Every structure is written in structure tokens, then in C-alpha cells.
Amino acid sequence: MPERKRIALSWSSGKDSAWTLRLLRQNHAVEVVALITSFNQVADRVAMHAVRRELVELQAERVGLPLWPVELPWPCPNGVYEERMGAMMQRAAAAGIEAVAFGDLFLRDIRDYRERQMKDTGLEPLFPLWDLPTAALAREMIDGGVQAKITCIDPAKLDRSFAGRDFDRSLLRDLPHGIDPCAENGEFHTFVWHAPGFSAPIHVQSGAIVERDGFVFADLQTT
Fold first, then answer.
1. CA dihedral 61, 64, 70, 76 (to 10 degrees)
2. Every domain of the chain and the residues it spans
3. pLDDT in tens, 194-205
4. What's the rounded Cα separation, in Å, for the pair 42 and 45?
5. Which of 40, 34, 44 is nearest to 11 (CA)?
6. 5-222 classified as CATH 3.40.50.620
């Protein structure tokens, strides 16, 4: 049997990352060996999603994979981000990893950026969810066992009352017209507390709802 391709997964802590992991693990030609997550060093939380680091560490434990953190200052100039991500790609290549997978769905500029940044790394960028119809994909995730809460809202796109809600069929019904069901346009971000491949759920509850830097966050904590 040929050796499986070793893959690192860009892990945001949200539903798209969890579903990407599920699809990759169904592919017997590849092996996911690490999760890569960028953290805001000042807040000690996932960059953008603002999920507490300890919750992401619990996710990594539940899926049985090492977590490779990319530590970012705040504020973080793009040059610093690219430098630190580049160092992580070097680490991955040195560890025998051949590809990095991302959970991007359809934003061409984001994909193009990732491909440019990885061009000279020796690593192949993979996009297992690319161009899947997002309405069907959202339902498939929910029906397939992804259980998540909304951690971050862009209030310019979606009412702040959605912060902290479960990502479920009821949410999909309540989303206003024009909001992507998978929030690929940045309408919201999620934290997955249980999904296929998790050894056990992570019991969380929504704490304070706060507005910061133009976004609304639900502070999730373990129960």
C-alpha cells in the first residue's frame, strides 16, 4: 500500500474546519497529522473567532491531533502575519508534511492569496470544500453531526442577537435573505463543540456578549 500524503489542516475552531477534517479522514490516501491555528497573543484567543485558547486545545485533544499555534501580536501588520505563517510552513515541510488544507468555500481572492503565499514553500494547498453549494453544505454539516455555536458576528451584516446561537436548522431558517448559510462572506464565525471524529463533546455555554473592534463576540466558556 502506498504511503498516505501527510497533511496539516488550517484550523479556525469553526464548522468549516471540522467538516474539512471529516472529509480528509474519509480519504484513505491522506493522513491529517497536525492542526494549525493562529492566536492573538494579547488576548490569548483565536484570531478573528476570539475563541479562548483552552477551548481549541480541547478540540485538538478530542480529535487526537497536535495543535501547532501561530502566535500573532495585536495589532498584527500583514507583513508580520506572513512572516509567522511562513515560519509555520517551513516547520510543516521540515516535518515531512506535503500539503496544507483549508476550509475555504468560494472566495476566489482568499484562495488566490493562499496559493501565492504557499507557492515557494514546497507544500500543496488543498481546498476540500471548494465550490460546494453552501445551503446544502450547511444542512449536511448539521445533519452529519456538527454541533457549533456562533462566537462572532459582523453587525454590519447580521444582527447581534445571533451571537451565541447554535448553528442548527433553526438558525438557517432565521437567517435574513442574502446571508450565506455558511457565512463565507464573514457574516459570522463558529466554535465546534462536537462533531464526527471528536472523542467526546466539549460542554460550553455562552458568557458575556461584547462588542469590540467593530464585531460582536459571544465569550464561550466550558461548563
1. -60
2. 5-222
3. 999 999 999 999
4. 8
5. 34
6. yes
